[in-house]
Design brief:
The protein is mainly α and 74 residues long. The protein contains three helices and no strands. The chain folds into two domains: 42 residues, no CATH class; 32 residues. Helices cover 68% and strands 0% of the residues. The termini are far apart.
Length: 74
């Protein structure tokens, strides 16, 4: 997931700084830079990552089964 990103936001006379900053933040979010930064912020052992992944999958399964049983009576 590591990559080189060249993000460029032009600030002209017609754009104000706040609008350009919002645009930059939106671009960073769309490229996944913020998510990658948060993942790299602290080291997690592989077993901890696997455990979190299993728990997230179980949570998704529970959520989907709840949704399917909720709307199956229609």
């Amino acid at each position: 997931m590591a990559g080189s990103y060249n993000l460029k936001v032009d600030i002209g006379d017609s754009y104000n700084a706040e609008r350009s900053l919002k645009r930059f933040k939106r671009m960073c979010e769309s490229y996944g830079i913020v998510r990658e930064y948060k993942n790299r912020k602290e080291f997690k052992k592989p077993c901890v990552k696997a455990k979190e992944k299993r728990e997230a999958a179980e949570k998704r399964r529970r959520k989907n089964s709840f949704r399917s049983t909720r709307y199956s009576s229609f």
